[in-house]
UniProtKB/TrEMBL annotation:
It comes from the Bacteria. The chain crosses the membrane at residues 56-75, 82-101, 107-129. It comes from Agrococcus baldri. This is Epimerase. The keyword Repeat does not apply. InterPro entries: DUF1304. Keywords: Membrane, Transmembrane, Transmembrane helix.
Amino acid sequence: MVLTVIVVLAAALAAAVHAYIFVLETLRWEHPSTRRVFGTTAEQASQSKQLAANQGVYNLLLGVAAIAGVVALMLGATDAGLAVVLTATGIMLGAAVYLVASDRSKARAALVQGAFPLVAVVAAIVALASRAALVATAS
């Protein structure tokens, strides 16, 4: 039960972060404050607007998937919920790892993007392993 609560909270927070990233990349890409966050000039932002919007939608959909897993967990579909959360947050975590591996100066951004997914992934794996152990001992 405690693990499920951790998974739900971490996945929901990961989804919220990715929804915020969607806003920055899709709705506010050319705004000066967003350009400062991403280190782009007005010209670069204008030229990359479509790419950024596509990336933003991708981030939003990952967040939606994480929330779908949370809803499944809250409705009692534990195995399905854990699988969906693990998939969505695993992808988020993989992207954060790639970000920092490809550019060490992006470590802070990778931490923001990947911290909650990391917690969700670890908790979901432990929860699934615990459920598997219970099933094995019950057989």
